[in-house]
Amino acid sequence: MSEPVPWKHPKIVERGGRMRPDFAEDPRFTFGWRDMTDDLTPREHEWRSYRRDGEETARLLLVRNYPSHTGDRTVPAVLIADVEVREDLQRTGDHIGTALVDALVADYRDWEIYLGPTERSKGFWNRFGWPKCDCDDCDLIVRRPAS
To answer: Across residues 54-73, what is the average pLDDT?
Structure first.
């Protein structure tokens, strides 16, 4: 297990008529966090800002109360909608992304955790060994709790 990465909820502000996290402008984050157009209100979405040594290292958007794709039993589920480790900290051996995911698994050990990897992130997610969801409606991978 990796060393935990501390996080906090960023301040939520209104931008363009929608509630958004007040992430600082930082060119080392390449995902368009400020440009997202979906309605991602804090009620169902949890924004996280991960920090180390006083600097932001990663950002995450977690969808709470995500509908489980497991039909035979009711299991609570969350979706990792977006996660980004700062560009200059990726593939450095610090394992920030791994620590972030390990902490999420510990926090949600009895939950299903879904995510939709991109072509760029597949290598990262493959190391966890989580299977592809077995439903017919998605291309997500899922971490299921131990039975």
So the answer is: 86
